[in-house]
Amino acid sequence: PPRTSAPRCWYRGVPRELGARWIEPGCRSCSCQGGQILCEAVSCPVSCSHPLPPPAGGCCPSCSGCLYEGVARVEGDVFSPSDGNCTVCLCLAGNVSCISPECPPGSCPSASPADCCSCQPPKCSFRGHTYAHGARFSLDGDDCTTCICRGGEVECSFAPCPVLDCPQHQQHLGPGQCCFTCRDPPAPAGCFVDDNGVEFPVGQIWSPGDPCELCICQADGSVSCKRTDCVETCPYPIRIPGQCCPDCSAGCTYMGRIFYNNETFPSILDPCLSCICLVR
Fold it and tell me: 83 has which bridge partners?
């Protein structure tokens, strides 16, 4: 593209002056900066709750009217929503504000804007008692059933009960309760350690076959085991069957033979050498 002394930009064959800004299709804002074209999506700060959609050829919603329930409203329009029953709404600067009449006790809103608080809901007669509309009550002697008076009709329902995660033999219905609850499981009497039913009482200590491992039966029925790490303090300790750690106090093990403290014996490697077992 041809260049001039001024740092202009060329975009699609059209020269753009330095600092020029324009809108491209797809709502992209472009500018000429130092001979380069910089484009970014158009930012639309919206300061109202119910803006109108962008006009033809525009990118940003408009707060000069309101879009409410899919219907465009002009600025200052007063209207009633589709299910409003005497509710009145106002479009103001892209915001919709609605207000409903407050009816005195015993009346209810009607569909007629001229008299919004006209109807008197019928009361309920049930088992010799009269209940006002909306009243909630329980059946005589049955606190687990809740009833409500709605427009002259009584609707009753049982109290919902939670789903229990315990087996049926542990479920319990206490006096005055509407729903079953789970009993606490019996405290464990001991620990089962294998599939053959071997049980150890709480507090029992045993070795499961390895003399360096000790286990104890905890109060909650669990088994806790701990392993003993041996530290050999002499170069030729005696290993005693069934005992966890080698013994350095009884004697020495040399070339597969056991010699006791202060015992003298010839060296197997050199018969002219004499060895002695010293326990230190």
Answer: none
